[in-house]
Amino acid sequence: MKKYMAYGIGAALVDTEIRVQDRDLAQMNVEKGLMTLVDQERQGELLSHLEGHLVKANHASGGSAGNSMIAAAQFGSPTFMSCKVANDPDGDIYIADLEAAGVNHCHSGGRGAGTTGKCLVLITPDAERSMNTFLGVSETLSTEQLDTEAITASEYLYIEGYLVTSPTGCAAAVKAREIAEAAGVKTALSFSDPGMVEFFRDGMAQIIGQRLDLIFCNEAEAMGWARCDDLEVAIEKLKQTANSFVITLGADGALTYDGTELTEIPPHRVQAVDSNGAGDMFAGAFLYAITRGEDFPTAGRFASLAAGRIVANYGPRLPAADYPALRTEFFGD
Predict the structure, then answer these.
(1) What is the number of alpha carbons within 13 Å of residue 229 lying toward its C-beta?
(2) Domains along the chain?
(3) Do the beta carbons of residue 130 and residue 30 sit within 8 Å?
(4) Are β-strands 262-265 and 254-257 bridged in parallel, bridged antiparallel, or unpaired?
(5) Region of 209 on the Ramachandran plot (φ > 0 left; ψ -120 to 50 alpha; else beta)
(6) pTM flag (> 0.85)
(7) Adjacency order of strands within the sheet including 117-123
């Protein structure tokens, strides 16, 4: 047994999640369903536009890899997170959330000055999330935030694809992969967003290297990586990129490939209200399941159930008590 089930590396962000209408997105010139990097001034403009007619706003620590590591830890698998937050109130929130979930992290020696990253998550009535992200100090995440000992003590290294937008973040992801490969640690990557494979393809290829052990993506990301509009063609491209993969299909469930067999995972039908964090939950739940010895189809069904619970609620995570209850509901332990 390794000390950690997974070592995650990604942007540390504090989410402000707001319910809006499609007309708000149009008025603010926000691209629906995507993650857009913005500066602090632009994020302030968006908040000013929304001021006075907010239906509901939630604040929580976010970031893709962080959400996945918290989910896996809440289900019962020890995890570690490399990220970068500042010595400010939002940084306090982020670190407190990691520690409350039992996630170890790279900030035990203190934090520097600056502004912790923030993500404005706009949720439309169809449950789609449109993200406008100010990275803050996360933009300068680098190899300094890597913990070689923790990486080598993990079963999986889990890389968040959003790191490709930052030169130092991309370099840190590449270095983490190289450390993992040298130590025989399995490597996993989430493509994170269609824009990452479309606009940062060369950097994504650097992170991937020769071949990964596991890729998480949705249908649009898979086809974007394969530069095609045919899912079967995209599947063949992914087989050349990784030993195994998962493709989430939204309301249609998911596909898992364990290196030998492609399996369709049925969806869990729910009344969707918020898709923010669904992919992160899927990845965290899936990693939890395979590292406890489950096969890919079983892990896929558990991850689908967990992701369904997320989209039926607002926010990227469930109440803490819901994780062991969900584990018991599915696995009986």
Answers:
(1) 0
(2) 8-328 (3.40.1190.20)
(3) yes
(4) antiparallel
(5) left
(6) yes
(7) 35-37, 129-134, 117-123, 13-19, 57-62
Query: pLDDT, tens digit, for every residue of 61-99?
Result: 888 999 999 999 999 999 999 999 999 999 998 999 999
Predicted confidence at residue 5, as pLDDT, reads 97
Beta strand 57-62 pairing with 104-105: unpaired
8 Å CB contact between 318 and 285: no
Q: Which residue has the tokens 């992801």?
A: 173
| Distance separating alpha carbons of residues 309 and 300, to the nearest angstrom | 14
Burial class (CB in 10 A: 0-12, 13-18, 19+), 269: exposed
CB contact at 8 A, 63 and 13:
yes
Tokens of 161: 């694809």
Please state, as a whole number, how many other Cβ atoms lie within 10 Å of the Cβ of residue 155. 18
Distance CA 142, CA 145 (A): 6
- DSSP characters over 165-218: GSHHHHHHHHHHHHHHHHHT-EEEEE---HHHHHHSHHHHHHHHTT-EEEEEEE
